[in-house]
Amino acid sequence: MLTKYPYLRQDFTASLVVFLVALPLCVGVAVASGVPAELGLVTGIVGGLVTGFLPGSSLQVSGPAAGLTVLVFEAVREFGLPVLGVIVLATGLIQLLMGALKLGRYFRAISVAVVEGMLAGIGLVLIAGQLYSAAGVGAPASGLAKLAGLPGLLADSAGSAEALASLGLGAGTIAVLVLWKHLPRQVRTVPGALGAVALATIVALVFSLPVATVEVQGLLESIQPPGLGAFGDLASVGLLGTIAAFVLIASAESLFSAAAVDRLHDGPRTEYDKELMAQGAGNTVCGVLGALPMTAVIVRSSANVQAGAKTKASRVMHGVWLLLFAALLPAVLAYIPLPALAGILVHAGWKLIPLRGIASMWRDHRGEALILIVTAVSIVAVNMFEGVLIGLGLAIAKTAWEASHIKLEIIDKGAGPVQAYLSGNATFLRLPKILDSLEALPQDRPVELDLSGLHHLDHACRTALENWAERHSATGTEPVRVSASGAEPVKVNTP
């Protein structure tokens, strides 16, 4: 057996570690998304047993992700739980199509600033929303309302013993997560999230704390495939926009995670188009089952690599352990306090905000840092989809502006023709600067315009240069002489 599967022992051990990491996160993401806890386990199971078998990235682990929590919660609130399956199914089918068309690699071209801004915005909204859950009260709908209501939440909680107990348990969970890496190595063999939830559960039981716990419905009872009526909402523009946001965010997060995981090991590199199809297959199955959407998750994936996994068998086995838990021990979920899960997600949301990256980016690439900040603020102020579109628009505008750099050098020796050298990219964006400089040249002197240094000359600039040269030549001086070996020639009419 070991001869046929030489890495079985390493993969078996790694699968147990990943299972213990994934279990509290699957439940926490589901509860924060406003769906039954079991649906988070279903997505984790599909991530192991379906996506785990498929080619793409051998050591990357998929499941429900904190990065999609806010978007799922908004979708369930606006369209209802039955339509969530339609959204996830459509997302999976689109991902399969994009992978078949070999579009996976192009997601690597998405601005890193936009992706990090997207995650930072999600993190801020997630933290704000889960603070309400930690206090045992409902959160406002919009991101701005969540942030604006925090002072009132703290004031109200100060006068309620139940709210204080709930907040204390959530704060204790966060403290355990932060301090876990400083504990002895023997203790750290248990994943921090699982240890924090276990301790919070024990504290809540021993002291009979008045805190809410996870509601258990049963695995089969929670699975609700979308009915035919739910597909009628596909005619809604709002629903189509939500699907587009799911596709963009789930695909980008998965493929960026794949690139990060590749840097953690020396094994086979990710095949991005196949990985996108694997994610699509998993989301298609999740959609049919009415479960949460999946992405590749860097926390589980890095735990898989660090635990010594060698092949995809580890992620498949982690799906088996999740299935066995969901089938045999679902009642255990009912003991988990909701403030503990909120604490885990507050901690996860904080890690989505790249504070060090923003500081470094601000020093070296201020424009990228501004895109990151604007994207994050837009997601908080407006919504997920429009915030990402704003970030992408800014990134495209910044790239277009930088691509239009042009240099105009004027050499005037006081006698003879004035020499003007244009180099770079002459686009309509820099046309006012070019014309202002050329029109400032002496009208009574001949001009030699050298365009050989141009890499690109667009139609607007070429037409404007022709008109300028014609006007300049009409003053009685010699016609403008143009040399344009590096760009399309500018035609000058001799007066």
TrEMBL record:
Subcellular location: Membrane
Keyword field: Membrane, Transmembrane, Transmembrane helix
A GO cellular-component term linked to this record: membrane
Signal peptide: none
Pfam family, one: Sulfate_transp
Keyword Membrane applies: yes
Membrane topology qualifier: Multi-pass membrane protein
Domain SLC26A/SulP transporter: 8-375
Transmembrane regions: 12-32, 39-59, 79-98, 110-132, 163-180, 192-214, 234-256, 320-350, 370-397
InterPro entries membership: SLC26A/SulP_dom, SLC26A/SulP_fam
GO biological process, one term: transmembrane transport
Residues covered by region (Disordered): 475-495
Domain of life of the organism encoding this protein: Bacteria
Entry protein name: Sulfate transporter
